[in-house]
């Protein structure tokens, strides 16, 4: 204590100050007479009035000191303004998000030292400018007032707040002891990481403590022995089996971009996507052909496909295995067609396998046969050599020290792994975490972790691209990052994140140019010009040589009482991932692409399965396996394989915070946790799960199809879907490229009013439905950019979600083989806007550039504009949805708001503005430079986030001439159509029809 | 009140063309008219039943204002309105009450211009009802605004921003139409009251009564010159009010027909709304008149003949409304517009079909009873039918507003509307306000226009056989 106290020169808490010898020494001459008897006898009678008063004065002085907390910081006043740094103007910092070992390069927009918006880093190959929803919501997590602020120690008297110095002293002492014992008894549990620095520090720790155990726990995988890295650029045929390539998956952003780049029929040959899956995912929705199979049928299908690919048609005949002949022949036909297509694209195809230790090698063998390993796919080891999975670890002795770096294993470990018991058994358990979550509450020590936007770090993709993570703000709540803590534990000299990352950089790029390269890396966020060697590949296909022998999952003992049994498929949540984002309100309210659910998970099943069980939408069922039970409301989704229930992980958090649920604060959990049903053996599927009706109903918060549809509505809905989302097969498109413009007869139209003329810019947007996969990154990007409030579950059920942008989801075709079509819906910025004429106070008016402007200050809230909007994109503030900001605890959330966008009050209508603040900023920049706005200089938030590049925004250019701008060219494309053109709105947002590339032989014979 | 009107019932209903049926009980003298009408205002204590009714109404009205306060403090979200259904009970109640408010001016102004002398017994009553209904109606568009404290922005007032309201907006037209209608109706009603207030003043015994009635009687002395000016002014206001009867609801209907929402965007709305308004207005007059004439002993002045006439109007307008319902389907089919067609099929067979068929039953089917004279002259039966008309007309507005909004162009945004307790409370509360005003009117003001009734008494013009 003394040394540390002397080190930093400031005290941080009363306890520290009062306890330090310096303080005592200082105190003694002044208060010796009074202080001594008072402390020694504890009898007030020994203190006379004068001394008592002296004591009171001293106590008061001490008490007042409690309120003062000075951060120790390096104060560098800006005596000279840094170049191009203007107060109030935004600037960007490049960093990297490492989400479960999957790095994504980011550019973080900051203003006056506050990060306010996260965007993809165009230089980073994993991002290329796009992001997923989790990156978009990062700022809300950063400012989350529920994040932990102080180290906590669990003592016999209860939880005590400690200061960092005491916590670090504890850490040092403990690790000094461990070092002496060569690390015996030390177990470190950490998530997957792509950080070279962390890998180095793990090595250092092992050097110092060779007997330590490092366990990895990542609930969303990888669970197989390898991870695959796909490259879809060169893949003409993609077969995805049991994987959600573009959804919540490793490399999802990059894969989406690569896939979408080849979905424009006018830009070269289109790729073809086959999806074989059990649930319905965005990947399945994007497929040209989709086959739904129960997970138990997947191995057989893979085997069949494998034989067909290896031997051609000859080996096609296979035993029915209890299936009906029609079923077998359908499988055979599908497998044959897929195999033929694969074989006719040697080297330019890929088969994507599930994260399954049995199936992935099988699939790898198919890829090997096809000769695509190293071309469109490469397999890498799932774990570093010296790391074991938490679930595989055989802990021969009880750990003496358990260091848990991030994560929440007490919540998200499979049901058959008792992490709580492990923690309890350890002499000392230390948990570093953003929140004081379920795991922290078991541990002896909880240490607040710095958010990735607050800390230094680095990452390296599997193919060797280095990127740096740098803080965009000082740790708001004073946390430490995992590498800093690890450096302390390893007893290194350097313990500051920046030094650690830079030293690692020197080790990686240790040439003469490293310093220049380091500075450039800090600017770019990524080292583009020099690649590190890729991770060592593993020969996964060799593992599968033996083929499938009896690795069938044993069904659990039958429970006689269960009427129905289903196979449960676990999926990461599209909103809260594995549960780590459960306290992020944007992500809780993010409508999951297929189910359109917010605020919770559900038992997703097909209508046929539900009918067999005898339940319908909203009925609660109880899933039961091995004595574990979970209750979930039913959500019907066509296209889910028969007898299959999919359930999202990550819900039912008991200690997430005030958003996601907290037992200690008396806040109900959002959704229910299905981790209990999971087993380490089969983390993704579970067979023979008993289903019981719970006999109650639960309101689920969907943003579409709120109510069970009647026959009248269903007919109209299915009838309209093809007109709203226009699509055609490639063949048809080649014959009639402008088919989309002729699907609806638009009569000759006249306007009641004088139509405005546009002389300057004409802002417009084109959305390519061929590319859009419906992931919803744009929705959260829009929310972050435009200060869109979160309304909560009750309000979503009422139908008052505030998203300016939504992704409409329509089903087409039959309930067994549905087609899914997505349509991003935002303000269409009609030139003849129906909303404008009906506003009695002129609160929504047209700009000279064709924007339908909303004047919030003028709005009195008659909501007539909303009634008259045929696209229903206007959003009304039914309540003061920013009321929580008045609470002092939530004040910090204001820091994340975009200062360029008004925060709308209660009673005001709002809607998409095409990010008018960005348009204005670009116009000002252009004006200062004395030029007009360059095409592409304005990127809307949704466009920026889109991993598929489906959104194009800009100036249409002069009305008469040839299109010279990107959006002008899109508008001239024959695929482009205007939604509800027959209403004569002259919408500025147009859609490009979706073209699919089916196998011509699929539908025949 | 020794005269028994029932004895004359057959005479009132006589259709003998040689013999004009008496408009009031034969043999009534002018002073008897005064006695009958002034009886209630001059009661030293109101009947216990009045107190009971008033207590209930006032309590419900108080709840209404409490709910308005809650709404303003909390936000529009206390209602069930949501994203496609931006308007629901708020505008439904508005149109419902403004429709009720049509009977009064129609009876006062149009029937006056057509010299329909039977109107004299009921016009005061109907006009009062109009005023109170329009007060209820005016509350809803005010409080339905998200920021009611800025409601004055709807008015074209000079301001430092030099901003006008949006004159293309039907809501703007509403502001003018409804406020004009309210002003004219109020003036018309008050003008008609002046001679009667003077009668009450002259008959009053208490100091306060004398002063208050005197104050509002504006020094009426009944001189020939005053009568001359009065008659001119009355005729003038009647002429002014007549087009308003047609215009107000036409303008209200443009709130819907100007919008392009399927189910709203239709040219039939102005006449259809006016017919519906008269229908609902007469429905409400009958609803109030039947018990009031019984309770306050007005049977000599408001005879079965009056009720019969009103029921005929109800029957006629019911047929018009029914025709409009049918024609909507025809227009939708004929337009070839799939969205338009869907709206009507959805109304009849969709999730709100129960509301649609309630509307049809109450507005089209039930009033067909009035083809039969016994139905038109049986008070309890006509009262039940009139209640049905009130319910049906409320549902008509609900069907138009909510079913159209809940399912418009893009099925992705379809959403049902479910009312909250505040929605229901405010609907009930507005009736509380209405009845509170109405009970005060019954207690303190002449329910029948004495001066006008005296003019149509046999002998008022020197002939028994007028």
Which outline of chain A best applies?
globular
Mind describing the biggest β-sheet of chain A?
8 strands, mixed
Number of domains of chain B: 1
Percentage of residues in DSSP E strands of chain B: under 5%
Could you estimate the helical fraction of the residues of chain A in percent?
A: 25-40%
For the termini of chain B, the CA-CA separation is 24 Å
- The overall strand count of chain B is 0
Given as residue ranges, the uncertain stretches of chain A (5+ residues, pLDDT < 50) are 1-12, 29-44, 315-322, 546-553
The separation of the N and C termini of chain A measures 82 Å
Q: Mind summarizing the main beta sheet of chain B?
A: none
Structural classification of chain A: alpha/beta
Largest interface: A-B, 59 and 55 residues
The tally of domains of chain A stands at 5
Overall shape of chain B: globular
What is the CATH C-level name of the largest domain in chain A?
A: Alpha Beta
Placed side by side, the strands forming the largest sheet of chain A appear as 5-4-17-16-15-6-7-14
Give the oligomeric state of the chains in this entry, treating copies of one chain as homo and distinct chains as hetero.
heterodimer
Radius of gyration of chain B: 23 Å
* Integer-rounded radius of gyration of chain A: 30 Å
How much strand content do the residues of chain A show?
A: 15-25%
Quick tags:
heterodimer, A: alpha/beta, Rossmann fold, Dimethylsulfoxide Reductase, domain 2, 5 domains, 41 strands, globular, disordered N terminus, B: 466 residues, mainly alpha, 68% helix
